[in-house]
Each structure stands twice: as structure tokens, then as C-alpha cells.
Amino acid sequence: GAGVSQSPSNKVTEKGKDVELRCDPISGHTALYWYRQSLGQGLEFLIYFQGNSAPDKSGLPSDRFSAERTGGSVSTLTIQRTQQEDSAVYLCASSLPPGLPPDTQYFGPGTRLTVL
Amino acid sequence: QKEVEQNSGPLSVPEGAIASLNCTYSDRVSQSFFWYRQYSGKSPELIMSIYSNGDKEDGRFTAQLNKASQYVSLLIRDSQPSDSATYLCAARIQGAQKLVFGQGTRLTINP
User: Fold this and answer.
1) B100, A45: Cβ pair inside 8 Å?
2) Across the interface, which of B46, B98, B104 has its CB nearest the CB of A33?
3) Do B49 and A104 make contact, defined as CB atoms within 8 angstroms?
4) Which of A72, B20, B36, B96 gives 20 to 30 Å between its CA and that of A94?
């Protein structure tokens, strides 16, 4: 079956602009995660969705970052007033609900964001 | 102390030899551990998961978990050039669903 898909694959934007990144999880995966991978910081958790609610937003670095999920499927991560330090690869992962094995998180191909 | 720590390498191993990758973890993680492989410019791909003390084998890969010493390792037997990648150790935080990752170990298999 289809894996996790993300769009766009690459995004170049100017400092101060808003960007929206999209994730489409594996069908049937109610858990969805956003991570960020940058050279100096490794792979960092941003936010976790179970269905349409986000019980863990602890990794969002500032109030410029927000995410939503509708219909228990597609999620969008929005970064407002982008800064150069936001440049990174944004990875989405999905998994079966907690407690339902296997609890493996499967990653999408990522969106490479470059802020000029 | 970081929740998950790895030696960033680089680790260089001759083709056909055993590659050994190690990871230590803190008390803040639960007992769910994952090894991901990441090729340059690609996203992480799950290699192994391990939850119980001891060894778990899958083909040329063996994951080892030692809860007393708080380390988890990945052995790759009969290493191939295609195994050259960065290997990420990950664990689930206690009471949460998120994963925390080590910095990754860059492995190169030399023909």
C-alpha cells in the first residue's frame, strides 16, 4: 500500500513569509507525528496527533508554528513569519493507534524548507 | 544527560565484516527502542524494533537490549556497501508517544 506522502518536496521561501507543509499518512494510521531534522540539532519531535486532536505539542519551537489535522487524515504544518533558523527537513510519520501493535512510526520523504 | 546518545562516528568497516553500532539511554525513556537507517537525502527507514532484554535477529541484523546497563546495539553481519548510511537509534519517552533520537552514527562499508 501507499506510504506516508508529503508535499511539497522542496520549498524555498523568503524570510518573513508564511509556509504550509502537508502530510498524508498511511491509510488507517490514526497517529501522526511531525519531526524536524537539521544539521546541528538532529531529528527533533514537534507535535503528535491522535485523530484530529494534538495531545502533545511540546516540541513546537515557538508560536509561529502551528499544525492541524482534519478528518483524521491529512495534516498541515504552518510556519508563520519564517526565519532562517527554520530551514530544515520537516518529516511526517504515522503509526497505528497507541496500544495497537506494531507501534512503529513510518516516515514520509520529508519537505526540505529553505528560508533565504 | 540526553535521553538517547550515540557515537556519531564515522565508523568504517570492511565489506563482509560485522558492524557494531551502540546507543545508550536515560531513565526518561520507556522500553521501546528502534533502529532506523537513513541514506543521504532520504528519510529514516525502520530496520529493527526491540522491547525485551536480549537479542532479536532479522536476517543480517541483530538488535541487542541490555536494560541493566541501559544500552541498545545493532549488529550488521556480512556488511555490504549498500549498508553504508547513517543509523539512528530512537526510543519512546515514558508516558508519551513521541520518539527521541540519537545524533546518528555514520557507517561506511569499504569494498
Assistant:
1) yes
2) B98
3) yes
4) B20
